[in-house]
Amino acid sequence: MQVSVETTGALERRIEVSVPRERIEQAIDERLKRVSRTAKLKGFRPGKVPFKVVKQQFGAQVRQEVLSDLMQSSFAEAVTQEKLNPAAGPRIEPISVGPEQDLKYRATFEVFPEIELKGVEGIAVMRPAAEVTEADVDAMVLNLREQRPRFEAVERESREGDRVTMDFEGQIDGAEFEGSKGTDVAVLLGGGRMLKDFETGITGMKADERKQIDVPYPADYHNAALAGKVAKFDVHLKKVEEKKLPELDDEFCREYGVLEGGIEQLRKEVRDNMERELGDNIRARLKQQLMEGLLAANPVEVPGSLVDAQVREMQVDAARRMGARDASQLPPADAFTEGARRRVALGLLIGELIRTRGLKLDRARVDARLAELASGHPEPEQVIKAYRQNADALRQIENIVIEEQVVDLLLEQAKVTDQPATFKDVMNFGA
């Protein structure tokens, strides 16, 4: 088998492969012999069809199958022979496939870049030096209370934070419009459910009070028929209720799954969750900096085929999150190109780091990750079993773990500077 290699781009290679005619004919004869053992033709018993007849009946089809198989198998041999590392499948163009001829074809493909890692040691990162304080726990407990409010009717004027119940009818230029009427509509003042001018207009009203208010619709309102117009609403405010937060008692604790230990146990569990989230966020920020440092020190040419595949994956993922039902609803590819290029480059660098540093997957960490994922389930063993029986799902967990190991390796060698920060600073980062 003869192979010639041409470099047609930074990562693109074109090879021409020639497979001797003798090899083709031998492969055809071997396959025809296998066919003859089971061939069924009228006038012959199964398996007793003369080889000459089998060749006449099936020779053309078998030849095409053999040529196709040989192009695939000989391509694999050729890239191994020439020490090439394809990044994706080739585009194959037949050159010579006729009878009594050597098989010749041209294959064009991209190879993985050769990477010589630099700057792995001493990547500069800023680590938020934050901790969970009692004030942070107080704020979180208050947040939990605000998630379980009750409302009590009051006789005073309504104000922000109150819940009001009302009937309303609206008109624009003397005509009703979509959404112009409502009965027993409950609105939390300041919640942003209604237009700001509507909420402002009913703030200060008392129970059983009636009022007419003017409400201008913004010029960029989502309903073009209402945009820029002014509506007149007749409002009958029927009820004003003040928000009351629940007491910090055993009943409140039970609502959040704390059956024993009361408020002290609740605060402990809140703190534990906050510290875990804080640690995760700090680690995420360190990882981001480490990856940026690795990319900056190692500009790498990435195969376009891998970028295209990553773009497609990101498109499908985005479409799924948006509820798209078919391929026609995929978001434009351009929106994902840079992100895909970054992902591919990082993947190549991480892979090279794993290879050159001899990192092995930490199975204990995989087990711990699975146990963590299953911990909130009533039957955690079944969850873990399901993951282990799903190759794709398990591979995702393994990829996360080995990437965590890479982060640990880089962090051990990084130049880390602690930066004073608060819990709020860290948790609001990027928000």
Question: What's a quick, concise take on this entry?
Answer:
The protein is of the alpha+beta class. The protein contains 12 helices and 11 strands.
Features:
alpha+beta, Alpha-Beta Plaits, Trigger factor, domain 2, 46% helix, 3 domains, four-stranded antiparallel sheet
Note down, in words, how this protein is organized:
The chain has 431 residues and is of the alpha+beta class. It has three domains: 109 residues, Trigger factor ribosome-binding domain (Alpha-Beta Plaits); 96 residues, Chitinase A, domain 3 (Roll); 151 residues, Trigger factor, C-terminal domain (Trigger factor, domain 2). It contains twelve helices and eleven strands. The strands form three sheets. Strands 6, 7, 8, 9 and 10 form a five-stranded antiparallel β-sheet that branches. It has a four-stranded antiparallel β-sheet with strand order 1-2-4-3. It has a two-stranded parallel ribbon with strand order 5-11. Helix 1 crosses helix 2, helix 7 packs across helix 8 and helix 9 packs across helix 10.
What share of the residues lie within helices?
40-55%
Share of β-strand residues: 15-25%
- How many structural units, i.e. domains? 3
Q: Report the average pLDDT across residues.
A: 92
Largest sheet: 5 strands, antiparallel
CATH architecture of the largest domain: Orthogonal Bundle
**What is the ordering of alpha helices and beta strands?**
EEHHEEEHEEEHEEHHHHHHHEH
> What would the principal axes of the Cα set say about the shape?
elongated
Structural class: alpha+beta
Topology-level CATH name of the largest domain: Trigger factor, domain 2
CATH superfamily of the largest domain: Trigger factor, C-terminal domain
